[in-house]
Specification:
Elements lengths: L1 E5 L8 H14 L4 E5 L5 H5 L9 H7 L9 E2 L5 E4 L8 H6 L4 H9 L8 E5 L6 H9 L2 E6 L3 H15 L7 E6 L7 H13 L12 H4 L1 H4 L3 H4 L4 H16 L5
Parallel strand pairs: 1-5, 1-6, 2-4, 2-5, 6-7
Antiparallel strand pairs: 3-4
The structure holds adenosine-5'-triphosphate and magnesium ion.
Magnesium ion (MG) binds next to helix 1.
């Protein structure tokens, strides 16, 4: 089982868009995939037309009184399941704080799913918190969308340093540029240079494309409703890079 997490401390950078499209592509590759929408805002659940509700809320899951497996829903796509968001996830930090070894809690909640899923995606809310720490410990590969500015690269360096300080398991990090505007010279120059200079940058970048915004109208992955679009092709290339990086085959 490979665990991917879309993560950035910043909001609105394309974490959920990536989690939704890449999980769809992973399932299309024949993997058994679960996406856990960890954001109380429930954007990924909305995009998969699933009610953002978990019986007993985040508390029941974190405390283990309700198994994670029991909360899972099927999506409209073969091989792709969703663990929905719940508004109580806004308190996940507090709940984790009262758990034993909070930074390991998410990983241990996912362990029983090993037999059922090949790939798990964790779609994180924008924060740096106990929850995100627990996500970083559970994930094998962090996918970090960045808007191409010099400051965003600093954010990535801070994240990499933070992860390097972990004892034991450290996730691999793959950053990618998100919402690239080809008309902005700064965007194109940063996006052209960094993937060459640094191995933690994917060579695929996702453009600022209106078809991606339309996901919330269609309530579907762009890779499903516009499979021949530039956006779908870019997510396809990103998935190839990410899955190869994580050592997933076919
Ligand atoms: N490449 C893109 N081009 C154009 N619009 C995009 C792109 N990626 C995401 N968007 C749009 O930008 C908004 C934010 O995207 P998304 O929800 O994926 O970001 P996020 O990082 O998950 O945000 P949050 O931090 O709130 O969870 C959404 O309305 C989405 O449709
Ligand atoms: Mg999001």
């Amino acid at each position: 089982m490979r665990i991917f997490a879309t993560y950035n401390i910043k909001g609105g950078v394309g974490k959920t868009a990536a989690a939704v499209n890449l999980s769809h592509l992973a399932a299309r590759d024949g993997h058994r995939v679960l996406l856990w929408d960890l954001d109380p805002q429930g954007a990924a659940s909305f995009l998969f037309r699933i009610k953002p509700r978990v019986k007993g809320g985040g508390k029941a899951l974190i405390r283990g009184t309700r198994s994670v497996g029991a909360a899972i829903k099927g999506t409209d796509y073969d091989g792709l399941d969703l663990l929905p968001a719940d508004f109580t996830y806004r308190n996940l930090d507090l709940l984790l704080d009262s758990a034993k070894r909070p930074e390991r809690r998410l990983a241990s909640l996912l362990t029983p799913l090993k037999a059922e899923y090949d790939v798990i995606f964790l779609d994180c809310p924008p924060s740096i918190s106990l929850l995100s720490e627990s996500v970083l410990h559970a994930a094998g590969l962090l996918l970090v969308p960045l808007i191409p500015t010099t400051l965003s690269v600093r954010t990535l360096d801070q994240l990499t340093e933070f992860v390097a300080g972990f004892a034991g398991h450290r996730p691999d990090v793959l950053a990618f540029f998100s919402m690239i505007d080809r008309r902005k010279r700064l965007h194109t120059s940063i996006a052209a240079e960094l993937p060459v200079a640094r191995s933690d940058f994917a060579s695929t970048a996702i453009g600022a494309l209106s078809v991606i915004e339309q996901m919330s109208v269609h309530r579907a992955p762009v890779t499903a409703f516009a499979p021949r679009s530039v956006a779908a092709r870019q997510y396809g290339e990103l998935w190839q890079e990410a899955s190869a990086r994580a050592g997933l085959t076919g």
